[in-house]
Amino acid sequence: MRVTMIGTGYVGLVSGACFADFGHEVVCVDKDRSKIEKLRAGEIPIYEPGLEALVAENVKAGRLSFSLDLAASTPNADAVFIAVGTPSRRGDGFADLSYVYKAAEEIAEVMDGYTVVVTKSTVPVGTGTEVESIIKRTRPDADFSVVSNPEFLREGAAIMDFKRPDRVVVGAEDDRAKKLMREIYRPLYLNETPIVFTNRATSELIKYAANAFLATKITFINEMADLCEKVGANVQEVARGIGLDGRIGGKFLHAGPGYGGSCFPKDTLALVRTAQVHNAPTQIIEAVVAINDARKKKMAERVIEACGGSLVGKTVAVLGLTFKPNTDDMRDAPSLDIIPELQKAGAKVRAFDPAGMHEAQGLLQDVQYVDGPYDTLDDADAVVIITEWDEFRALDIERVKSTMKTPLMIDLRNIYRPDEMAEAGFDYHSIGRPS
Length: 435
Ligand code: UGA
What we know:
The chain is built from 18 helices and 14 strands. It is α/β, with parallel strands linked by helices. It folds into 2 domains: 2-198, 3-Layer(aba) Sandwich (Rossmann fold), CATH 3.40.50.720; 292-429, NAD(P)-binding Rossmann-like Domain (Rossmann fold, 3-Layer(aba) Sandwich), CATH 3.40.50. The strands form 3 sheets. It has a 6-stranded parallel β-sheet, with helices on both faces. A 6-stranded parallel β-sheet has the order 11-10-9-12-13-14. Strand 9, helix 14 and strand 10 form a beta-alpha-beta unit. Helix 5 runs parallel beside helix 6 (127-138), helix 10 (200-231) packs across helix 12 and helix 13 (283-306) packs across helix 14. The model has no long low-confidence stretch (mean pLDDT 96). Uridine-5'-diphosphate-glucuronic acid is lined by residues 122, 151-155, 211, 214, 218, 252-254, 256, 259-261, 263-264, 267, 323-324. Pathway: Nucleotide-sugar biosynthesis; UDP-alpha-D-glucuronate biosynthesis; UDP-alpha-D-glucuronate from UDP-alpha-D-glucose: step 1/1. Residues 317-418 form the UDP-glucose/GDP-mannose dehydrogenase C-terminal domain. Keywords: NAD, Oxidoreductase. Its EC number is 1.1.1.22.
């Protein structure tokens, strides 16, 4: 199969490299010249474990290439995937579809022979129909189908998620397109991965429903954590106790500072807006969005409270800045809400993150960035764990204690045990667990 992938962001690059690894001939196209030049030189513009090696292997095998020129790769392609960004539109929270529609127009101009045009970007219900109209308008003679094939991969685990997914969702309106999509996913199909065929609108909605449901699960357990704190219960045990019920499931029940990232905040908001437009408001998701926004801000209050009500003249060490571990992505990261509040309350903030500091520098003012976790702690009055990078799980606690001015830890990801920290002499605060 010959595949053209438009967009070399997270989804495009990972999908392109994985499809090449399945044995297809893949060209990844992007308009950003410097990105394409970097990729051709073997440089990966995003931080994703395993991706550099996967790209290198497939480029070497001649199955994967990078191009600025859509017109050169598209006429030969069996399928053209649209994997461009769909950011939140400023002001109203709708998904901005201008890049998707532009790509559709450009594909239409150069396509040749039967082509399946696949939207892999996260797009609101109805986008596939609009893409179809754009192509028909631009090229009335074109022989094509428009398919929705949302992606469910997580940053930091993207390759594994792509190659061993729980399911693949394909929204296709005709058998010709279904057959071609089954062929593209043949290695997974043979592996007995469920391939869920639906109509296009259903497939488009599945993506938003999945992300909104996961965001709801997180928000639910975060509220339970708040209640646990009031009544002396332990949220991790509540999560385990309910999660073992197969109807609930144990995943995405880790209480923390609120969800962030490039997907949940944007997609929940877009779903709220779509539902409002169709006069079928999703009150649960509206509540989730509001609760999560407020929660990220509230986390700073916890730190201030743990520090005795004032941060004036105090130094706070921050471990972890990215929205989750194994990524350099700072989009909607809780640290972006928490740190400015700490600074407003008078704190001097010293921070370390294994991958996010470069990105963070443009987003957070007056933070002192250092080279390692222990460097944040020098004479610090408190340490706050915002992201659960593995390297923060195994700190030498004695060294942490002796480096700090006061042994005070606010662990917003529950990576340490309250009993062990108390024994080590720490004033230890976590989320939803008795100290
Ligand atoms: C999410 C979904 O998990 C993917 O299935 C989806 O494909 C992707 O969005 C997307 O739409 O592109 P991602 O944003 O990479 O993936 O990250 P997650 O691992 O889902 O984490 C999102 C946020 O939720 C993070 O801030 C994380 O810390 C938080 N989270 C997650 C919790 O607070 N508790 C949990 O139990 C799980």
